[in-house]
Amino acid sequence: TQLLEQSPQFLSIQEGENLTVYCNSSSVFSSLQWYRQEPGEGPVLLVTVVTGGEVKKLKRLTFQFGDARKDSSLHITAAQPGDTGLYLCAGCPAAGNKLTFGGGTRVLVKP
Amino acid sequence: EPEVTQTPSHQVTQMGQEVILRCVPISNHLYFYWYRQILGQKVEFLVSFYNNEISEKSEIFDDQFSVERPDGSNFTLKIRSTKLEDSAMYFCASNRDGTNYGYTFGSGTRLTVV
Fold it and tell me: For position B96, what pLDDT does the model report?
């Protein structure tokens, strides 16, 4: 069974600070996806990383896939209150399309 | 922006009753999925569906569960005899070609079994 562990579970920071969320596994994934989920809503895809060592930027968000394709990180620069939410990582195995989700990191950015 | 539409948004049912959750995936997508999220827990995979048949299912997806694509647009999840532990948010998702390039999730159906 593939498992994804996210850390930290909860992060509270002031507006303007930087933050990093980690997603780790002992398993290799063919891709790693990051989602954001609002209360009572479904996950919304932010980015997919596919190649080991890949870095993708989405405005102030930077996503990295580990060289061994077992881990990933999400870094937010100069966080804003609008970044508040639940961030989920999800891994796709080499065979099949079943996503394994991490437990999520709840981010609170205080003005 | 194309959306995955789920109905109803909330469903309350008595234990032992059958429920059908409905989804309209994005029209040019070929792969369809159901996931569930019990309150406070991780999002869990239930089943994937392609070319009118189940391509993969989890241990959760036992004989009480079934999926169907009754026409060209709807994708349904049926739970035959609901249990209290089936209470959860159920998310439908779709993607175009089943590869690694992200899924579009619906807003979910909150199922409460009483």
Answer: 87
